[in-house]
Each structure stands twice: as structure tokens, then as C-alpha cells.
Amino acid sequence: MTDALVIFTPSGKRGRFALGTPVLTAARQLGVDLDSVCGGRGICSKCQITPGYGEFSKHGVTVSDGALSEWNSVEERYKSIRGLTEGRRLGCQAKVMGDVVIDVPPESQVHKQVIRKSATQRDIVMDPATRLLYVEVAEPDMHEPSGDFERLATALRDQWQVNGITADLALMRRLQPSLRKGDWKVTVAVHRGNHDAAPRILDIWPGFHDGGLYGLAIDLGSTTIAAHLCDLRDGAVLASAGLMNPQIRFGEDLMSRVSYVMMNPGGDVEMTCAVRGAINALAISIAAEANIAPTAIYEAVIVCNPVMHHLLLGIDPVELGQAPFALALSGSLSLDARELDMGAVNPSARVYILPCIAGHVGADCAAVALSEEPGKSKDMVLIVDVGTNAELLLGNETRVLACSSPTGPAFEGAQISSGQRAAPGAIERVEIDVVTKEPRFRVIGSDIWSNEAGFDAVTAITGITGICGSGIIEAVAEMRMAGLVDAKGLIGSAEQTGTARLIPEGRTHSYVLHDGSAAGGPKIMVTQGDIRAIQLAKSALYAGARLLMDAIGIDTVDRVVLAGAFGAHISPKHAMVLGMIPDAPLDKVTSAGNAAGTGARIALCSVAARNAIEATVGEIHKVETAIEPKFQEHFVNANAIPHATDPFPELAKIVTLPHVSFNTGGGGDGGRRRKRD
Ligand code: FES
Predict the structure, then answer these.
(1) Is 46 in the pocket of ligand 1 (CB under 6 A)?
(2) Most informative mutation of 92, 110, 210 for ligand 1 (most atoms within 8 A of CB)
(3) Where does a domain end: 155, 190, 206?
(4) Are residues 396 and 545 located together in one domain of the fold?
(5) 9 and 104 part of one domain
(6) Residue span of the structural domain in which 224 resides
(7) Is residue 666 part of a domain?
(8) DSSP structure class, residue 422
(9) What DSSP element (H or E) covers 312?
(10) In contact, 360 and 310? CB cutoff 8 Å
(11) What is the distance, to the nearest Å, from the Cα of residue 412 to the centroid of all Cα atoms in its chain?
């Protein structure tokens, strides 16, 4: 026998190989995903495999004890120093001596799948842009003069099939000492380049180096900047952190920031500096949290809306503030981190920015599409990324449409009388008894309701400080369900509703949710102005969804996905009572958590995913809400709670909304006419 059958699992790939062929070589020839950093020199242990022995009827082979070469001294040395699980071999050392079945464990696969930890996390197939490669470089020869870099490039070509490697000047300066210190053996971090860009060496270490390669997935929002620090070798999230976008001082929402630029020459530069500084600060703090050096961060992927995109890049966003909302550029970008003043991370680090879909629909929406994959959905799905600017995707495997809608910051607690950002002490859940009209609530940081024992003790620490976005949505929806607010959004009086919690404020009324004034705390109320602000925000959101539904020619959707950090906290029932989202069976309204952040993480871990979303973005059809004549009509109809004209049959199955009317100009008896549907 001169050759033998080698079968790899779980891939099922098989082939015949000459006796004596290393398993790693066989794997490479068959395209089996078996990792290696040292190129088969028995140093890195990335190539671990588990041979199977005995009868494999499924594969039609019997594997004898001598199917692989004997355990050798390299493996023994590795096992004694670093340890090797019983039954494992090093694929570069074990040679094929007979028919054999070889299992490649997940940790030895380059394209390993990162298994999701919760329902909101997508599985990711690892395909990182940056990898560590160990190379042995030819020594200089006076008779054949060539540069050390050229010989390193040749070694990378011959040993790793990396062609046309490049490096920046800073790295060139470190090249010679590294090569000599490592006795002409070095490990390099190689970024494979995007599209036409050449592969590039990002870092170099003498000898074999197995240090960490880390990346940042950044969701750059108008209000908050959130980041995950990921291990680029296995996709693990080592730390997550967020901070406020410092641009808030220039304007709460995007258009006010564009106006700031229009009215203040140089304002764009100020905002660019502010956001870049914040990203740097975030990189430092997240690295500290994960106990790594910020310079071990070699890559970042950033997703953001178009205005943030331009301000980050230092491009004046003025054109985005007026029709036809032209982007300076919409394609993906691969940059040096230092071009974005990201001085905290590795000096050679690379940044990838996802493509924008259109002038109002940014790379953050592309990231949501990458994470949620509406284009692969069999049923008609509406994905709503709720933020200061809501972004919506509607579609299925046939076509996907996108739009954005200017909801404003009300859903984040801004423009609300007692509003605050989601933080400990903020009211986040509200229930109002339909008979007594008495509320009970929960604050962030505690699971205890306000009418339960222990609530006072818990809130003694945090206080009851205000009401956050999810809290105001629940409060308004509960007020509607309890008959304290009518379909037009008017709050009734104490007399009309029978509760002293409704107090007059000028010509309108407010509902006292919590009065902490006796103890020096705030009086937390829901005012008529609050309800108006929520109505405007939810009308914009619904009108955007309706426009997309018109464009596809449907009146209902099969399911709704609420994305965004805020979306994760919205109660689907209350969102539907308000008419924020179209009617759908309640169990078909789900939360995807921070889908834009997840999309950023997928792109960070996978070049294939970057390529996929670049192709997908070209196929997503953009609907421009700002110039669509029907938007206004949809907006006006959506002002009612839940809606003036659209039926909500699924909602009606679970909630009966009281027929009340508090229109002061309408005779004033409406409040007493509280019959139910
Ligand atoms: Fe590095 Fe086998 S390939 S130890």
C-alpha cells in the first residue's frame, strides 16, 4: 500500500494521500479548515486533531492503531510544556500511515462558528481579516543583495501564499531588530486587505508569538457610542462598554447637529474632534476592562447613521440636511485608524466602515440588515431600529426596502417633562389599574414593583429620578388602556375620570405617577405635552412603516422585530397599544437587542460577511420619507392612539381600549361615556 484514505469530520471531505503525508498537508490540499500559525513547525498547537480508531461503517473504513505515525518528540515536548488533551495529536506532526478518520475540533478551525449565547445573538462563522502568521525568513546574503522586507515578503508568499504584502514605514523601522532577535524567525499580524487593497503587516514579533489580536465593533449612535471588544481569533466578546456621544452638546438630534454646522463655520471640525476623542476614550476604557493593552486592538468596525458617518470622517454633513440628501460617499471604507485620530489603538490598526444605504439610511441600518437578514426571511418582516432617527427595513427573500423616519429623541426620554436616559432610578415599567386608576411601577436597577415590600429600601439607594423611554411608552399606553387618555391623546380631568391623580395644568391635565416631593424628591408626571411628544414620535415611526408597506403593496406584516438597545426594552403590547408599530400577532413581535452592534461584530469577525453586506446593500431599495407625499397623510392618521383609520385586529384580541373622549370643545360629557368596545 502506497497511499491511504483520509476522511475529515465534521466536513466529510476525503481524499487519498501518499503514506507519510502530514495530516495538516492533507487537510490543506482538501481545503479542510485546520488552523496553523506556525506553518507546521510544531510550535503553535493550533493544528490539533483527534484521530478516530476502529470501524466507521458510515464511512466504509476501519482505522487500525497504526493509521497515524507514532507520537513524536515534538508532540511530547508540546504536551509536557503546554499540555495536550488525551487523544489529540498535532496535525502537522502526525503522518498518514493507513486509512484514517480525523476529527477537527472547533478550536482548531479557522472558520469556527461562534455559538450564540442568547436568542438575540447571531451565530458567527469566523473569517477574520487579521491573522498571526509565523515565518522563517532567509538570511541576508552579500552575493545576492536584497532587503530584509523583500525576503520577508518572499517567505510569506512561499510559506503562506500571501502575495504582495505591504507594511507602513513605522513597521519597517522595527523589521530589522525583530528579524535578528528572532534569529530570522518572526510572527507577523497580517491584515488580508479588502477588495483591491494589498495585504499588510500590522505588527511583528521576534520568534513565535501567540499574543492576543483584538478588535472593536463600534455602534456610533447619535446619542450613545457602544462598543464590543472581541478576540479576533475566536470571536469571543471580552468586554462591552458605552458612553454618551459628546456631540449631544451641539444638538440632541441629527438635524440640529447639521444646523449647528450650517450656522457655525468650523462646527463640523469641532464635532469630528469630539466624536473621535470619545472613540479613543472608549477604546482605552474597554481595553482596561478586559485587561489588555489598547495597542493589542488591531481592527475596528464602525457602524453609524449617515450624519455620524460624515462627521466621523471629517466630511461636512450639510448636504445630508437638504434634498436630495446626497452622501459624499456611500460605499464601505477601509482606513488606517490613525486617519481617524484613533491614537489609543495599535498604530497600524485598520478600520472598516460599513456601506451606507442612502442619505438617511446609514451603515447602522446595513449592520441591522447583516444581523437580521430580512432578505433571507420567508415571511414579511418589519425591522424597526428605534432611536433618535428610526430606521426601518421591510421585506422578505423577494425584496427588501428601507427608510428612515425622524422620530426625534422622545423615545429616549428627551422632550419628556420627567424624562431621563435609561439609568438606575428611572421608571421603566408602568401598570395602571383600570378600576382604581392607581399606578404601580418599577425602576431600573430593581425587580420589585412600587406596591411590593422592599421597594422603598431598594429605591433608597437609586432614588426615583424620572422616567425613561420604555417607561413613558408604557405609561402612555397604560393611561390609554385605563381610560385616562382618549384616542386623540387628550388627558381627561379628575372629574371626567374619577381619579385625583389627574391634576390640572393650565388648560390641560397631567397624571401624577409618583410624588416624591414630601421627601425632597421629584414629582413625576405624565403631561399633555409628554403625550404630544410621544404621539409625534410614534406617528413618524408608523408612517415610515406604512410607506414601506405601500411600496410593497401590503396592509399587514407577518412579524415585527424591534432592534436597538431601546427596542430591547420596549414592551410589544404597549408599543402596539400606542400604535408605534403595525398590528401583528403579539408573539410575532420580538426584540433583536442591539442589532446594529451585532452586525458590527459580525463584520469585525468575518470578511465574508463584509462582502455579503456590500452586495446586499446594493439590492436594498430606499424609500425617501422626506419627499414622499403620502408620508404626511400617514403621519396624521397615525397620530391617534393607536390609529385613526387602520384596524388593529390582533391588538383587539388581547386588549379592549375604552371608548373615551376628552375633547373639551365637544360637550364635555365624553369622559363619563366610558363604555367598552
Ligand atoms: Fe503549528 Fe502544528 S501547525 S503546531
Answers:
(1) yes
(2) 92
(3) 206
(4) yes
(5) yes
(6) 214-353
(7) no
(8) S
(9) helix 306-313
(10) no
(11) 18
Residue 674 belongs to some domain of the structure: no
Compute, in angstroms, the gap from residue 92 CA to the centroid of ligand 1: 5
Q: Is the beta carbon of 47 within 6 A of some atom in ligand 1? A: yes
Q: How far is 123 from 119, CA to CA, in rounded Å?
A: 10
Q: How confident is the model at residue 107 (pLDDT cuts 50, 70, 90)?
A: confident
pTM: 0.81
- Which of 466, 501, 533 is where one domain is finished? 533
Contact call for residues 228 and 289 (beta carbons, < 8 A): no
Residues 21 and 57 in one domain: yes
Say how far apart CA 372 and CA 365 lie, in whole Å. 10
What integer pLDDT is reported at residue 665 of this predicted model?
Answer: 53
Specify the CATH number for the domain of residue 65. 3.10.20.30
Q: Is the same domain home to 527 and 546?
A: no
Q: Among residues 633, 656, 658, 601, which one has the least CA distance to residue 300?
A: 601
Q: Does residue 636 lie within any of the structural domains?
A: yes
Q: Which protein residue has the closest C-alpha to ligand 1 atom 1?
A: 44
CATH number at residue 268: 3.30.420.480
Beta carbon of 44 within 6 Å of any ligand 1 atom? yes
Q: How many domains does the chain have?
A: 5
Cα 321 off chain centre by: 26
What pLDDT does residue 469 have? 86
Is the bond preceding 324 in cis, omega lying within 30 degrees of 0? yes
Q: CB–CB of 348/203 below 8 Å?
A: yes
Given a cut of 50, whether residue 593 has pLDDT beyond it is yes
Non-local (6+) Cβ contacts of 133 within 8 A are: 37, 39, 156, 159, 160, 162, 187, 188, 190
Report residue 628: phi and psi, to 5°.
Answer: -80, 115
Under DSSP, is residue 25 helix (H, G, I), strand (E, B) or coil?
Answer: helix
E-strand ranges in 362-406 read: 381-385, 390-395, 400-405
Q: Is 104's C-beta closer than 6 angstroms to any atom of ligand 1?
A: no
pLDDT tens for 329-373 read 989 999 999 999 999 999 999 999 999 988 888 888 999 999 999
Are 178 and 136 within one domain? Answer: yes
Predicted confidence at residue 80, as pLDDT, reads 86
If DSSP states are collapsed to H, E and C, what string results for 438-494? CEEEEECCCCCCCCCCCHHHHHHHHCCCEECHHHHHHHHHHHHHCCCECCCCCECCH
The identity of residue 55, as a single letter, is E
Assess whether 389 and 436 both reside in one domain.
no
Cβ neighbours for 284, distance < 8 A, ≥ 6 positions apart: 294, 344
For residues 415-425, average pLDDT:
82
Residue 660, domain member (yes or no) = no
List 52's β-bridge partners, or say none. 101
Going from the C-alpha of 637 to that of each of 515, 529, 534, 541, 573, the distances in angstroms are 35, 19, 15, 12, 20
Report which secondary-structure segment, H or E, holds 304: strand 297-304
Reply yes or no on whether the pLDDT at 641 is more than 90.
Answer: yes
Same-domain check for residues 523 and 569 = no
The sheet with strand 502-505 has its strands ordered as 502-505, 508-515, 523-526
Looking at the structure, do residues 143 and 191 belong to the same domain, yes or no? yes
